[in-house]
Structures
1.
Amino acid sequence: MPSDPRAVLTRPAPEPDATVAYGEHPDQIADLRRPAGSGPPQPLVVVVHGGFWRAEYDRRHTGPLASALAALGYPVAQLEYRRTGQPGGGWPGTLTDVLAGVSALPGLAEAALPGQVTSTPPVLVGHSAGGHLALYAAAHAPGAVAGVLALAPVADLAEAYRLDLDAGAVAALLGGGPADVPERYAATDPRSLVPLRPRTVVMHGTLDQQVPIDISRNYVALARAAGADIRLIELPECEHFGLIAPDSSAWPEVTSALRSLHEDH
């Protein structure tokens, strides 16, 4: 594993096999990757990238993850969306983009990669802020999501605001704190949206310095108490970025969890 865990954010990856648009804005797109092998068509895996919802982070840093999943035989879409710091990003555009993309991508991928993708609901793999967006999509469009693998998700927006994660990232997304825009937190905070219907696995490294693991511990406990089919996998010796790095010690755990979700449907 590289000495700097953040190196995965700038690591090159093979070009995607196709790019499709689910809206008219230049960021309402997704990169598609064909599954290796020649098996029957499969449900799509939609990767929702993190970066604290900010414009400076885009889908390209999930290229190594997406290409590695495609090499394992999964059809993969790397979802892009409008982010804070650009027109239309933040509330509500970031959230409505993800909902629209998740709903449209299986059909778009089936057309772009004929014979390799089914148009059935996808499994979502979301990292960090992308984990929040995956949980949000599963809560608001449960029929469009088969399962969620949330990697170090920002699963408590009010607590993330209180902790000032990434210097005001939640306030930039929602336009203020819980006391300022309570209705926005009620609509978007995963803790307000339990229980999720889709089966969910949350994975978090105990050494995470970007998103404290207690956020996942508390969210999963709350969701389980509400009746959700959810489990938490804690990874000792893993920090924030190893979860999306195919050469990390966490990678076999990530692929095992995805396999369990993907094979369910």
2.
Amino acid sequence: MEQKQAIYRILDANLDRAREGLRIIEEWCRFGLNNQTMAESCKQMRQELSQWHSPEIRAARDTVNDVGTTLTHPKEEKRENLDSVLLANLCRIQEALRVLEEYSKLINGKFALTMKQMRYQVYTLESQLMNKNNHQLLSQSSLYLVTSPVENLYEVVESALQGGLKLVQYRHKDETDVVRYEQASKLKQLCHKYNALFLVNDRIDLALAVNADGVHLGQTDLPISVARQLLGKDKIIGKSTTNPEEMKNAIADQVDYIGVGPVYETPTKAGKKAAGLEYVRYAQENASIPWFAIGGIDETNIEDVVRAGATNVAVVRAIMVADNPKEVTQNLLKKLS
């Protein structure tokens, strides 16, 4: 009898834990993403769990004598960003469902099977949720930093992130893979600390190795269909375009965003003729997906680019060689707003 009561206490605690976690996820799907389908999925799972939360299981609750009520961890006291809140609660739900699955096998096989099926449903929800979050963040990012090799790489990027930057692409053409991997790993951690997206230039293998949020590809890189197959549907894929035909093809390939430029001649794209503001105007009228004007843009000319129709821009030197990257980032964001 004591053993049965202990099992009921375990079921009671984890039914509560799973329902609480689902409610936290549901609220973001409802109010943050305005996604009725995902919010309804969470609600249905909460209701399913409630049906298994029988009076007999509830009656076994003994909060006063529960030795776990005072246990805590420093990471539970503070969350770094929204993703950490969502991921912590998704993990909480999954762990609770696994406990429910295993212990309910001792009393009801159908209960156990239901918990197993729900756990896989939550795995799918996690993938959908993080994908939605990343694409929402992409759509809200007006300033995009593409890195260049500088001695104080991490300090520059973090300073820009402190200034409000939400989108970073790691680009280093002339370095060993060992160094690229180390730098990309550290930059991804920095970006996620500030709830910013981290993409890798050209290298799909490197993006996979560090679990980046996506890649940016050029016209001579792997086809988008291959990149999507390798990265999966949840990752962000962007592509450089220099003319209307390339834009049309990129959109047809279902990339998530495009680069439009180079607006001005730039040493980053040595020898490439500037597409000019005319191409920016074309993008403003014809692009059906998010796009970033790029190429030689800085504080001295960004207003011209904005007047031509750009609401989002990508920069390199304007931030990477700035004396105060945070201040420059704030100034650029102000001009874009």
3.
Amino acid sequence: MTGSADLPVPLPSLSDLVVERVGFGIFVLDRNMNVLMWNRFMQDHSGFAPEAVIGRPVFDMFPELPRAWLARKVESVFQLGSFAFSSWEQRPWLFRFDHDRPITGGVDHMQQDCTFMPLMHGREVIAVCVTISDVTHVSIMQREREEAVEKLREFADRDGLTGIANRRFFEARLTDEFTRWQRYGGDLSMLLFDLDHFKLINDQFGHVAGDTVLRVVAQRVSDMVRKQDVFGRFGGEEFALLLPCTPLGDAMGVAEKIRRSIADTPIEVQGVAVCVTASVGGAAARVGVPDYEAVVNEADEALYRAKREGRNRSVALG
């Protein structure tokens, strides 16, 4: 008589082996959200073996799941009999699994794409198969790419020496603000200023020292402007400040603060205190001014009037 030990052990089917070994999560839910299947990926990442999960409502084992969202998603597959999908960009994860990427990637949990597939018996949906794909690497790469593009865009908008807006970006913002002013009215002013006798500083101390002066001036003015203002370098030693929602009188008050912040405190260059002054011209959008270039031209004319009148002063035009 042959003992039970001699009975052949049934081999798993190829489909069972594939489901167990694939590198993504697979689990199956019935209409009551009970778990009918739970593969090795889900076991390894959740810490729950199939026998602990199968036959129980998925929300009992994982109360942190987005209950309303997941129930709607599964029910829509039962009703429509069609696939559904969720990207990590819409919902970063379904299950809060750990990932195996470096912590420097800026991602706390495994980023997941989810597919919801109807399992049919004839024309009836009898269960929904959900797959979980680990796309953490893809999400990190995309975030890094977006950050790189954003930095490139920021560098393209910034003056390389001072770090403030360059002329291209300033004029783009001025165009936008002038269009807004034409549509809604209100106040819009701008200031142009440059450093008096800047060539003498370069000639006496060298261009490296001149660059130091430009950076210090840019920092002083940056510390004074509001968040909604746009401060940029127009070229050489000339700067521009756009002041949305600001009447010209108030703008000239800002001009005086800028002028004094530059003139009252010498800038140390190579151990020497260099006195620096600035001339400021102001102008504002008003009825009869056809475009933003006219505002720039009026501010420029006011600036040169300030220089003709002796420099280290503020002059308004308009």
4.
Amino acid sequence: MQQTQSTTIMKVSMIKAFSDNYIWAISSNASQNMALVDPGDANVCIEFIEQQQLQLSSILITHHHADHVGGISKLVEYCKNKQWPLTIYGPESESIPHCDVALNDSHTVKLADLGFEFSIIDLPGHTSGHIAYLSHDNLFCGDTLFSGGCGRLFEGTPSQMLSSLEKLSALPERTHVYCAHEYTQANLNFALTVEPCNSELVHYYNQVLQKREQGIATIPTSIMLEKKINPFLRSHEPSLMTSASEYSEVNVGDKLKAFTIIRAWKDNF
């Protein structure tokens, strides 16, 4: 996936890790340097770096969970042995190993060597200090928004997560969404239970089945698509409120109540 930002071209490459994690490698035509987003596994990252003959200069962390930060220490040592300068960015309210620059949504990250600038978006919900990185039309959102789903509420409240998802929903529809897991098929199984008459969702589900049968990734997705098919971006819709009411046997008349019920429903699905 390539996007033009001024005179530089961003290349986003997928590095698969563990059973279903995606680590994102960001490079450009401006240099041989690169950045990693949420490197939970150092070994697959080092393999990628050496295969592509790139130099790691930055690590962008969205939140503190081990499958997102577990590779940092080994990558720091790797870069030290190579004598490569390395800067690690992460959320200011979470404990991130080796973090050099602590961020909140008043900050921007300028990766001058790559020619890109990222806006920071605070996204509490999955964890209390979760952040995302947005550059041009590319969103790196960790475990907040998935295709067809959203992250579990380990530390935040339903209200916080709904607010975070509404921030992402308000982004331009062309925005590419680079989340950190291949959860799409399982998410859509649930989404179809909640909103079975959504024709856009049915069509997307069939596309996803074909992709996964062929071992093809479903990520990146887009804000435009997620607004059509993702129940957690659609809690304001009457169809979602009806499903929430039927599931909970309580009359649901507002989006926060619908979201709260649907999130709890997914936890037990």
